[in-house]
Amino acid sequence: MTPPSQAQTIAERELCGLVDGLAHQIAQHVRQRAAALGLTAAQATALREMTGPMTMRELAERMSCEPSNATFVIDKLEKQALVERRPHPTDRRAKHLALTAEGTTLRDRLLELLTQESPLAALTPEQQQALHGLLEKAVVRP
Q1: What pLDDT score does 1 carry?
Q2: Which residue among 7, 55, 56, 98 is least enclosed by CB atoms within 10 Å?
Q3: Which of 75, 72, 48, 74 is nearest to 62 (CA)?
Q4: Among residues 117, 107, 120, which one has the least CA distance to residue 34?
Q5: SS3 of residue 38 by DSSP
Q6: For 79-114, what is each residue's pLDDT tens digit?
Q7: What is the residue-wise DSSP string for 39-83?
């Protein structure tokens, strides 16, 4: 395999810097919007990722964290009556996490706030779709 050229190395380093910068902007955006709703960024991320009933392991994977961290977040959301644990339909050992009516309402409000002045708002829908495709190719999932 041929080593990358100096120009290629510089371009990749610059690209990594841009992706890192965007990630920081998005994280800051999520923190600000979460705080406006009385949530932590982790709680907002959990609510954003709860698109339907799922296990703790599935949520942790979507949140890119360990199940124990997701459990801590869900415990807090459960105390706020935003999420509830229900029996899993096919696995007696597992629980399904589900949003309560109040949780669904808050999630809808959160999603609305996250789209306002988003760091990605400067991109057209077509550009966002292209970026999505490129990032999916670049992100290696286990």
Answers
A1: 64
A2: 7
A3: 48
A4: 107
A5: coil
A6: 999 999 998 888 888 889 999 999 999 999 999 999
A7: --HHHHHHHHH-SS-B-HHHHHHHHTS-HHHHHHHHHHHHHTTSE
